[in-house]
Structure formats: structure tokens, C-alpha cells
Amino acid sequence: MTARTTRRTAAKSRIAAAGAIAVAGTMLLTACGDQTKSGSNSSTRTNGSAAADLLPREIKAKGVIKVGSDIAYPPVEFKDKSGNTVGIDPDIGAALGKELGVTFQFENGTFDTLITGLRSKRYDLAMSSMTDTKDRQQGIDSETKKKVGEGVDFVDYFNAGVSIYTRKGDDQGIKTWADLCGKKIAVQRGTVSHDLAKAESKKCTGGKKIAIETFDNDLEAQTRLRSGGADAGSSDFPVAAYAVKTSGGGKDFELVGEQVAAAPYGIAVAKGNDQLAKAVQAALNAIIKNGEYGKVITKWGVEAGAVTEARLNGGT
Predict the structure, then answer these.
(1) Helices (DSSP H) in the chain: which residue ranges?
(2) 178 φ, ψ to 5°?
């Protein structure tokens, strides 16, 4: 998918329209492994690539773009049985790397530390189903509305919304966020789902607030729900649909209600690094035009979330 700042955040998250349920049926069903540092595939630069000419000199010299990512969010980014980093983001990263003539090296980190990692220059980019929001762009805490940092710029590359899921056959009448009042939800800390849960809990009446239990990653939240420690879970639609399809062979969870808060995922770039942002934007537009982006989107069955143009800071 958030918030996952933090990444996947605010009340505008990850998509995909109703038809995107295809995500659950057509995705590659690879299992998750332990989280470790890993690099994506790279290839030689496309001859005459205008995007490559925009890269900062120091990145050209290194030949590597370090990408911070919370690699525990299947199918967007996760580990396969062999421990390789796979998913929608790594595949798009590989296509971008080919266009730019560099390696996109994905490095694992918890979601709520990725933007800090950009500021400290640990990463050149953050690509982790991170929702592009005005708050993140401006470094505003989505709950307190106070300035907490300088913010980041985003190159938008996908659209997604947020879904709720429950144990299969035990939805307890949950169809909307309002139905969670008086119940417990398990979510990844710092995501749009987390923000929505906090916002909805404030609307609950009669003292029946939403009990919110947060975790470092979405897989831990799923485990909590599976064990009966929560009544529902929530994550970006592609992630929720994948969990419903794959966990327990499809016997553990079910989606309830409709998606909400559709918004773009963005590749985050530190403020002031305009040259890199423009290079990534140009490369994304190039792979959209040449069809490589479409191949990735089709491979993972998430066509409903595809974009037709790489926008800069398109979130609201």
C-alpha cells in the first residue's frame, strides 16, 4: 500500500477502484521471509535517456540509488521464500533503474523512520507504498497539525485506497469505520489506516471508542487479528486483498465494506533535492510511455491503480 511521517498517512491513502479486486486473484502468491537488506535488479542505461541526464552527478558516479522501504507489505514490497526483495515497488524500481542507468538498492527500515532516513541522507529515496499528502509534503503531523520537519517531495506513481478486513466468517457486523466503535483494530503504526482509526474513534459516542493496537509492520498486525487479539485489521487495499487471498490459503480473513480515502502513492525525495526528483519523474514518465510500467502493473494484477502520468506532489 501505510504512512506507513510516516508513510502510508493522513486521511488520503492508497486505492484502486472496485474493479481492483483483481489484485487478489492475479497476484503471484509468493510467501514472505525475514527482513534483510536487499538490492533490486538493475540494467544498463537506455541509450540517450533524457532522464539519466538529469541525475545528480554524485549519484551517476556511484551508480546506485539507495531506497528506504518497509519490506514487509506484500504485494507492494516483501521478501520471497529465498529472501529476495520482490513486489510492485521493487519491480517499478528496477524499471526506473534501467531508464536511469543505475541500480535501485532497496534497504529495509520501519515505515515511520523512512522520512527521517531521507533527511539524514541514509536513503536517496523512500519508496514504500507511502501516501502523498500535503501534510507530509509540508512536514506537518497529521494528528496535531504541528510542524515536525521540513517535509518531502513526492513523485506519484500509483493510486490506492484503504480497506478493513476481519477474520473469515466473523465480521461482527463491521461494514464501515463507524462500526468499529467499541471494538479493537490492529494496524501498522504511522499508516493512513492508523490515522483513520484515530480520527474515527473521536467520532464514537457513548464512551465506545475504537481500541487501536499498533505494530511495526502490517504482518504483525495480521498475526494479532488472526490469533483473535483484535476484531479487525486495516491496510491499503492491495495489501488487504493480498492478505485475504493468501493467508491460510484464503481461509483466515475476509474484506468488509468499501475502500475509503483513495490517494496517490509517492516516491519520496528530500526537500532541496530537486534534480533527483525531476530525474525520477522523467524516468517514470518514460517507462509509462514505453510500456515497462504497464508490464509491472499487469504482473501484479493492480491495473485499477495505474497512473498515466508521473505527477509531482499531487496529493491533497
Answers:
(1) 22-26, 50-53, 57-62, 88-100, 114-119, 134-138, 192-203, 218-226, 237-246, 274-290, 292-299
(2) -65, -30
Task: Name the amino acid, one letter, at 168.
Answer: K
Distance (Å, whole) CA 92 – CA 104: 10
Q: How far apart are CA 219 and CA 206, in angstroms?
A: 32
- Each residue's pLDDT, cut to its tens digit, for the chain (316 residues) gives 444 433 344 333 333 333 343 333 443 333 333 333 444 443 444 444 899 999 999 999 999 999 999 998 899 999 999 999 999 999 999 999 999 999 999 999 999 899 999 999 999 999 998 999 999 999 998 878 899 889 999 999 999 999 999 999 999 999 999 999 999 999 999 888 999 999 999 999 998 999 999 999 999 999 999 999 999 999 998 899 889 989 999 999 999 998 898 899 999 999 999 999 999 999 999 999 999 999 999 999 888 889 999 999 999 8
* DSSP 8-state symbol, 28: -
pTM, rounded to two decimals? 0.74
Residue in the structure block whose three cell numbers are 524516468? 283
Number of H helices, E strands in the chain: 11, 11
The single-letter code of the amino acid at 216 is D
Alpha carbons 11 and 135: distance in angstroms, whole number: 10
Work out the angle at residue 257's Cα, subtended by the Cα atoms of residues 253 and 258, and round it to the nearest 5 degrees: 115
The answer to whether 289 and 133 are in contact (CB under 8 A) is no
| Cα–Cα distance measured from residue 314 to residue 66, given in angstroms and rounded to the nearest whole number | 23
Place of cell 499531487: 314
Inter-axis angle of helices 274-290 and 88-100, nearest 10:
100
Euclidean distance between CA atoms 309 and 316, whole angstroms:
17
CA 182 remoteness from chain centre? 28
Mapped onto helix, strand or coil, the DSSP state of residue 154 is strand
In angstroms, the CA 194 to CA 187 distance is: 6
| Euclidean distance between CA atoms 243 and 228, whole angstroms | 16
